[in-house]
Amino acid sequence: MQTKGSDVLVVTGTATVLEASRLLASGGVGALVVSADGSSIDGIVSERDIARVVAHRGADGLSAAVESVMTREVTTCSLDDTIDHLMAVMTDRRVRHLPVVVDGALAGIVSIGDVVKHRLDELETETKTLHDYITTGR
Questions:
Q1: How many structural domains compose the chain?
Q2: Which of 50, 60, 108, 129 makes an SS bond possible with 6, Cβ 3.0 to 4.6 Å?
Q3: Domain span including residue 35
């Protein structure tokens, strides 16, 4: 969260799937938190949810309300969760996005891409440290 910030794209449950898909595209993100007030979490809607509704309903699915296609039981995380914990939760729950909750309110979102990037940065730092130690003895 420190490097990516706390911006979260939010959509209401009454918005259409088409409106949600446009927001996903313009924001360059893979999921939106569904919230009536921007703080509480009513659900989450992803590109995958939209693909499924279009596959089942065709173009008519685009006029459906987001609340009819969203995932209602949302797995969340906190600022105190470790990267290892987030990776385990994402793998176990088969989710790609975890809204971050602080004091019961939406405070951000972590994607699987964020987790992978952080882990790659850690590995790069570790590799550089080991290389420096081997070549300089420090």
A1: 1
A2: 108
A3: 10-136
